[in-house]
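Handout, page 2. Input:
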Amino acid sequence: MVVAYDGADFHGFARNPGVLTVAGALEETLAVVLRHEVSITGAGRTDRGVHSRGQVVSFDADADFFDPVAVQRAVNRMLRPSVAVRAVSATEPTFSARLSCVGRSYRYHILNDEVADPLLRHMVWHVRDPLDLRAMNAACDQIIGTHDFSAFCKRNKSRPSESMVRTVERAEWSTNANLVRFDIRSRSFAHQMVRSLVGMMVETGRGRRRAVDLGDVLRSLDRQRVGSPAPPQGLVFVTAHY
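Output:
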């Protein structure tokens, strides 16, 4: 299934007992629709408040109760308006939304204006200071390619030795009037990597850091040299690539 969701209502994507998550809501709903327990695998995990337009999930279903059109309609009816299943299809048994994925694209939105827009408060980071996109794109040049992103990641305490080496294929800032957008693609991302990069690039755009500083911090592998990550509501999981 390809799933879009408004992350404001959820405590992230991954199932977490006792709180509402996207995966938990999908599993409970699919269990009702398909008449058996369902365990889903997602192409990526999103934090609390982060949205998606193209999350891909895979799961096993009993063929006797599986009709793609009926499943899509039923799940959309039960989980609207926060969740929308955009497509449902049968695939090979070996397919995994996570393991078969060869790339993930994220997008971050900033409202760069003196005055906030209440109607966009769950979808953008409101930044009042003027932003220099040329400097921010120069900072992007520092992360293209394969690097150790330890300085920009929050490590999982249960996996302290996990590698933070990632390959960034695309990173670019663009603007349409006062809406500023950051697009980034990699095979995979570490926890808080995109938001941490955005946070430092916005500091560059404000003139508080130089573009080359991002490269220096990247090579230092020192998390303490990076400020707070950008807030979650501006981030969208756009597409999983296969």
